[in-house]
Class I SAM-dependent methyltransferase
Amino acid sequence: MFDQLKLSAWTSAIRGKVNLPLRVELWNGHRFDFSAQAPRVTIRVPNPGGLRYLLSPSLGGLGEAYVEGALEIEGRAADMIRIGSALAGTSGKPPRAGSPGRRLLDALLASPHTRAGDAQAIRYHYDVSNAFYGHFLDPAMVYSCAYFENGDEDLATAQCKKIDHILTKIDLRPGQTLLDIGCGWGALVLRAAERFGACCTGVTLSRNQYDLACERIARAGLQGSVEVRLQDYRDVDGRFDRITSVGMFEHVGVQHLTDYFARIERLLAADGVVMNHGITTTDVAQRASPHGSGRFIGKYVFPHGELAHLSTVVRSMQEGGLEVRDVENLRRHYARTCALWTENFENNAARIRELADPKTFRIWHVYLAGCAHAFTQDWIGLYQIVCGKAGQDPGQIPWSRRGMYR
């Protein structure tokens, strides 16, 4: 039931706390502005039921209301996220919710990480359509953090530099075997074969990624050097001189990280090198991201996805038989990457709407901008970690980091 007094008290409280270029329009024609500036975001409440998302705002709740149509929101996604986060900050609730023990229990119950479950989660996220991703990614279809060596690179250049940065970090040499776990649409294995002369194997659980990667391999004439498999990493056999995992271990599950790295250790040659490139939480207790944003991503974007703290990752690597040799923080790089993806998404909105239903469009609209905001705020991070087998002499691996940046 519509409560005018409660709404008036809420609008007065918001104006007293923050100055936001926001307009709220109700179903009955009432309008509320929260700044003297022209509104950059307009929230339309189509019926009284939508008010609950405003009167007790959280970033995840506002995102859910937008996705489900309980609120109609207009504006650039970056502005929507900034204003939503500011509204959530006025609620007086702590930014992170849920005890570490409760969150771990929820993860164990909801995320068994079976082969079938993981495959289903990957298909949900990646098999929207290749054309859908093509409208906001770079031409090589690299769906992970780019590397801005100078800070002014365009997205395509920064993604190419990221791949070269990884392959140089692991000291990849001609004739060596490379396994890329979670190979996406094949950009890294193609580059590793073409520029570095490696013999490459990539694995993915996404049929769409697999099909396009195979097409690209054939088009490049690299069938003798590159193979992509539709395969779970747990089913890979053999020994590899180099192993890369880029944007993959977030799907493994925190409770399975030691097993994941132990599996990599078994696949790695005695003097081999592995690099894990992945998102981490900056909360040492590994609770959900602030203001309900983590719950939104778990529900709508990455089913079964879990983020570990860097300390947990390093411990799990050691428990899995790997020695950490180098760690690099690329958090700012991912904030910029996601901001560029968001710009591309909005610039190509008309075409993307033709490829996805309205709900999927709204999910990705706020998800990409939300990730940019989360990286900017240091709620989440991105680390590249280079490892080798524990107890092994690195042998011919360079003594200093100079070679990584040549």
In short: The domain at 103-405 is CATH 3.40.50.150 (Rossmann fold). The two ends are 65 Å apart (CA to CA). Confidence is low (pLDDT under 50) at residues 97-111.
